[in-house]
Amino acid sequence: MYLKALELNGFKSFAEKTVIDFTNGITSIVGPNGSGKSNILDAILWVLGEQSYKSIRAKDSSDVIFSGGKNRKAKSVAEVSLIIDNSDRYLDIDFTDLKITRRIYRSGENEYLINNRKIRLKDINNLFMDTGIGKQAYSIIGQGRVEKIISSTPKELKELIEEAAGVKRAKTEKEESVKKLNDIQSEVEKIEYVENDLA
Ligand code: ATP
C-alpha cells in the first residue's frame, strides 16, 4: 500500500484543483514561507477524518475553504482526496485503487467518500485503524509533534504504542461489545421489573 497522489480543490490556499503525485522513494516539498507546504499536511490529516480544527491550524470548518485572493473569489466548497495503491490489500477493503475523499460546504456539512460513494466517518476510522495511517497515527509528524510525543502523558504514550502494535482495533471492538452488553443488561432489568409488576 502506498500513497500515490493527493488532490486538493478549494482547500485553504489551494483555490484550484491541484494534484501532487508521490512517486516511489522520498518526496520533498519545498517552497517559500507561507506558500502552503504545511497546508498539504493539514489536508492529509483532514481527509483522514480530523475533527479538531485547531490540529490543522484552522479556527473553524469554514476556515479550511479557500477564502479568496487578489483576483479570485472565495470558494463555497473544499475537497481533498487521497489516492492510494492498495494492491497488496494492506487496507482491509477489496479495492486495488482507493480514492478517499472529504468534502465540506460553507454550511459546515461534511461528506466522506470512498471511490466516489458516500460513506460514514466511522468507516474511514475503521479502515485506517491499526494501520498507522489514521489521523492520530505516527505516520504524520507535523511541526511540534516530536516535542508533544516526548512530553506525552503515560496514557497518551500507551495509545500511540497500541496503534503501532495494532491492538487498537481489538480494544475498540471490545469497548463497543461491552457497551452493547451493558445496554442489553439494562433492557433485561427493565423487562424483569415489568414482569415482577405483572406477577
Ligand atoms: P512556512 O514555511 O512559513 O511554515 P508554509 O509553506 O508551510 O509556510 P502554510 O502555513 O501551509 O505555509 O500556508 C499558509 C498560507 O495559507 C497563508 O498564506 C494563508 O493565508 C493561506 N491560507 C490558509 N488558509 C487559507 C484559506 N482558507 N484561504 C486562503 N488562503 C489560506
UniProtKB/TrEMBL annotation:
Full-length numbering of the shown residues: 1 to 199 of 1175
Family that this chain belongs to: Belongs to the SMC family.
Coiled coil regions in record: 157-187
Chain positions recorded as ATP binding sites: P32, N33, G34, S35, G36, K37, S38, N39
Species, as recorded: Sebaldella termitidis (strain ATCC 33386 / NCTC 11300)
Its job: Required for chromosome condensation and partitioning.
UniProt-recorded name of the protein: Chromosome partition protein Smc
Subunit structure: Homodimer.
Domain remark text: Contains large globular domains required for ATP hydrolysis at each terminus and a third globular domain forming a flexible hinge near the middle of the molecule. These domains are separated by coiled-coil structures.
Annotated localization: Cytoplasm
